[in-house]
Amino acid sequence: MTRTVFPIILNTFREAIRDRILYNLVIFALLVIASAILLKDLTDGQEGRTIVNIGLTAMLFFGVFIAIFAGVGLVSKEIEKRTVYSIFSKPVRRSEFIIGKYLGLCLTLALNVAVMGVGLTLALVFVGSNTLAANIWPALFLIFLELMIITGVAMLFSTFSSPALSALLSFLVFVIGHLSSSLRDLGATLGSQVTKVVFDAIYFMLPNLSLFTFRTEAAAGLVPSRDMLGYSALYALLYIAVLLGVAVMVFQRRNFK
Amino acid sequence: MENIVEIEGLSKDYEVGFWRKRKVRALDDLSLSVKPGGIFGFLGGNGAGKTTTIKILMGLLFPTEGSAKILGSPIDDVKMRSRIGYCPENPYFYDYLTPLELLDYFGQLFGLDASVRSSRSEDLLNAVGLEEVAWKRQLRKFSKGMQQRVGLAQALINEPEIVFLDEPMSGLDPVGRREIRELIAGLKAKGTTVFMSTHILSDVEALCDEVAILRKGRLFATGDLQELLSRDASRGGFEIIASGLSPAAIAQIEALSKGAFVSGKPNGIAIEVASEDSIEAVLRTIRDNSGTLISVLPVKQSLEDLFVETPAEN
User: Fold this and answer.
1) Which pLDDT tens digit goes with each residue over A162-219?
2) What are phi and psi for residue A232, nearest 5 degrees?
3) Which of A172, A250, B19, B192 allows an S-S link to B187, with CB 3.0 to 4.6 Å?
């Protein structure tokens, strides 16, 4: 399995680098540097907190943008450009291809988050918020887990629908995923059984992305507990396993005309 | 020796239409076998079902009915794929890679060591006639013919026992076609079986030992190429070429037997007769009229006759 998956991971990573996906880092760096310089003069002792808020939010949105747009292209581009013809005539299982492509993009996202994290840390050190600089990393880890889920969602959609529709659906999952927990609570208070069932179904079927939201707390200098990190990681891994499992099942049956 | 490819009753239906889906049969009950060591020509016009068949063999399409084996293994056996090669029609590869990187990547998928990948990649790029300056250039800058050469190289990176080439001459200029013809002949000399789909008949005549001809998704004929061409010799009869005959003598020959057909040739006239019985009478008339006999040859069916569907067959 690793004999074929590993080269696919590396090739997907190489594709992302050569397609200049990491250029977003430049924009991010400019944003964080500008915030650090401007806020140092404008805010009174709150600059660290504001930089963390801006930085983590930008990191999530840049990451989601890459996860969705590169994620929907992972499989669909290979089919459209007919590169799958050469791959599947070689000793490569379709499941290995799906896993390799997925992990390749996750590797790109990990590098993206890590480089952004280093930039954010340096900006915080620059404004003298050394404690915050050390404490933001667990929040970065949670963002990375969320991006891994969104990548899996985007890839699953792209195994059976067009890239544009897949991107739209993935974005909807991202938005609803952040609201599903609140919707479920709302459903419980409304008293209607139908509403409760619908909101419960959304909660259980779509990813509960509020589990990975720790931006405001991180800005306040808080660090997530080990239990929270462990539960979020376990939830993410199980959800990703289901996403990849379904993506493989759909892809196994696909004809390449 | 056992056949290297065995196809039994292979059919493929495609669904067409958006709202009202209906099935169109692209391949219909195809059965054929390929012996090891030769060059097998898989012929047919556009839409005959050649690419569909090859894609089923490569596991890219699932058959509606039937089954196939390559090297004795079912076509869904992933391990068997380490022993075969495939160059798709109009191949297209990762445009951000160079040919060397592409061959290295595909070599890794076969589990080849780095040193083997490196040396084999260079040998193959040389063999397909890709100039060394292009080896480290990204594939996005390659012409169709250059992509085709890279496609052939990648199909051979694992030194396959059988290689499937879907229209391998597509996009190549005459010099390129000759080079690739030599490469394919060289593969046969090394003992590699070549399964080649094409509709370029001169390539088939120059290279293939055996052929299968598809028409509208069905097998029309299969077997040894020379046997197929001479099998129906009686249909063509014989062609007698003579010169120095007067118009009166030609009229006499035309009247000799039913079915004699006389046409002009640069070196005289050609007389086609339907059967052996008519030859002697025509020869006697030529001698009696002081004509010169140039040749008497059986008329062979041409590959084009086999390939092209006549209205009656249609």
Assistant:
1) 999 999 999 999 999 998 888 888 877 877 788 888 888 888 889 999 999 988 888 8
2) -65, -40
3) B192
Kindly state whether B63 is in contact with chain A, defined as any CB-CB distance less than 8 angstroms. no
Instruction: Kindly state whether residue B314 falls inside one of the protein's structural domains.
Output: no
Q: Quote the domain boundaries for residue B246.
A: 238-298
Domain limits, chain A: 2-252
Burial pattern B59-89, b for ≥16 Cβ within 10 A else e, equals: bbbebbebebbbbeeebeebebbebbbbbbb
- Considering the domain architecture, whether residues B139 and B276 belong to the same structural domain is answered as no
* Amino acid in the structure at residue B194: V
- Residues B129 and B248 grouped into a single domain: no
pLDDT digits (tens, 9 = 90+) for A60-101: 999 999 999 999 999 999 999 999 999 999 999 999 999 999
Q: Does A226 touch chain B (CB under 8 A)?
A: no
Task: Give the confidence band of B310 by pLDDT, cuts at 50, 70, 90.
Answer: very low
pTM for this prediction? 0.85
Classify strands B218-224 and B210-215 as parallel, antiparallel or unpaired.
Answer: antiparallel
Residue A106: half-sphere exposure toward Cβ, Cα within 13 Å: 22
B152-184 residue pLDDT tens: 999 999 999 999 999 998 878 888 888 889 999
CB–CB of A90 and B59 under 8 A? no
Question: If you write DSSP's letter for every residue of B168-219 in order, what string do you get?
Answer: TTTT--HHHHHHHHHHHHHHHHTT-EEEEEE--HHHHHHH-SEEEEEETTEE
Domain contains B267:
yes
Q: Which residue has the higher pLDDT, B230 or A96?
A: A96
Answer whether B62 touches A (CB < 8 Å): yes
Q: Does B283 touch chain A (CB under 8 A)?
A: no
Neighbours of B235 (CB within 10 A): 11
Shortest CA gap A88–chain B (Å):
7
Burial of A20 (0-12, 13-18, 19+ CB in 10 A): exposed
End-to-end CA distance of chain A: 27
Residues B112, B196 within the same domain: yes
Q: Which residues of B touch A90 (CB under 8 A)?
A: 81-82, 106, 109-110, 158
Phi, then psi, of B9 in degrees rounded to 5: 60, 35
Regarding an ipTM greater than 0.90, the answer is no
Residue B53 with chain A: CB contacts under 8 Å: none
Asked if A70 and A12 touch (Cβ cutoff 8 Å), the reply is no
What's B261's domain CATH number?
A: 3.30.70
Supply B181's token pair.
Answer: 């013809």
Q: Is residue B220 part of a domain?
A: yes
